[in-house]
Each structure stands twice: as structure tokens, then as C-alpha cells.
Amino acid sequence: MDTWLLEHEPLVRLAASAGVLAAMLAWELAAPLRPALAPRRRRWVTNFALAVLDAALLRLAFPLLAVGAAQAAAAHGFGALNALAAPGWLAFAASLIALDLAIYAQHRVSHRWPLLWRLHRVHHSDPEVDASTALRFHPLEIALSMLYKLVLVTLLGAPASAVIAFEFVLNACALFDHGNVRLPPRLEAVLRWVLVTPELHRIHHSIHRDETDSNYGFSVVWWDRLFGTWRAAPREGQARMALGLDAFRTPAEQTLGQLLLQPLRETRR
User: Among 60, 147, 164, 123, which Cα is nearest to 262's?
Assistant: First the structure.
């Protein structure tokens, strides 16, 4: 792989994600599907602040991130794909599929295990959903997610190129999936056979638990269809469906301090 790309991977990934984010925010401002219930500025400041805290924590807590773990595994011949000496193209494809499935599984477990749900519900407590919601995660959840990826990449022996590609796809798809946008109906009907669209992922942010516990995928719909968690439409329709969590709907619950402390509070799902 190109040495320059490996050396500058964090900067390249940041620039690519920032470009996708800017495009999605511009699209939402120009043609939103749902009108804003409150001034966007307040939500955006909070969600972006969480993203900054998440990035800072990763840099402080993890001297080696996912791409570095892939390089270290390759250098020491560690991991299943390295041990099997899999051809480059096969290792790349297998890693993308395995990592995608692993994130689906992680997401599903985050809804099932109470302690993990306390962290993950910070993401779901956003009373509106747009591209900024894709940045809204509790720092401890981000740290656990990175630890999970480090172990997975190392045991798998995923090549650095596959990890870089996966991280870009993960970030870009998350921003797209959370977009408060409407795709042309015919295009959306075709895309949803393969890809997770904003219409499909918005169901996952429904106030109804049976809808929240569906559509866990972030890029392709294969895993939801295979494991029976795919849902085609919300019962109340896309434009009128209620989003978020009842216990955390007030403006007082949406401050940065309250979101950081939210996992300490016990509420019934």
C-alpha cells in the first residue's frame, strides 16, 4: 500500500469524512425531509462537541488505532488471514465482509445488554435525526468500540488497506444513513435492496422499541435480512414518526453535561 497514505491515513480519513458531512448538511438545509423541531444550532453544537471529545479520547487512550493494529499484525504474521497467507484480493474482501458483520453484531448487542444500552442510548436520545446524529456517541462507547475493532482486526489479520476502506465506508454510510433527506422514491426502492437508506435507518431511531430494535446495519441490508431484523417501514410513516427516547426529550436532557452523565441514570426501556 502507498506509504504516504498509511502515514497520513488519519488526516485523509478526516478530510473525506468532513467532505461527506458538509455535503449531507448542505443537502439537509436545502431540502429537509422533516422540519426541525428546535433550532439546529443547539443540537449541532452538542453533537459536534461529543465528536471532538470522542476523537480526543481515542488519541489519548489508544496509541495504536485500527490501521496501526493491522500493520502490526502483518509485521508479525499474526491473525487468521496472515497465517493462511491468503491472497491480497481475498484478504481484502474477506476483511470487509467480516468487519461489516462484526459491526452489525456489536450494534445489536448494544441494544440487548443493559450496560451497553446505557451508553448507546446517548445516540438514540437525539429527538431529531440528521447527519450530526451520526457523530453523537458517548466517549466510553467509542472507546469500547475501538477496543473491539483492535481485537477483531488483530485476530483476523485484516490488511491495512481493507481497514482504511472499511473505516471510510463506515463513516460515510453513517453520515448518509442519518441524513434528514428524501431520496427519489424509485431510486430509494432500488437502493434498499442492497444498501441501508436514510428511510430504513430512520426506522431504527423510532420511539417504538420494536422499530428501534430493527435495521441495525449501517451499509448493506444483508445482515438484517439474513437475521430477521429488517423492517420496511415505520407504522406512522416517515414524515410523522416520533424519534428519540421518551425519557430524554426535554432541552435540559440534551445538554453536553447531561449526555455525558446519562449512562449513570437508570430508566426502563
Answer: 123
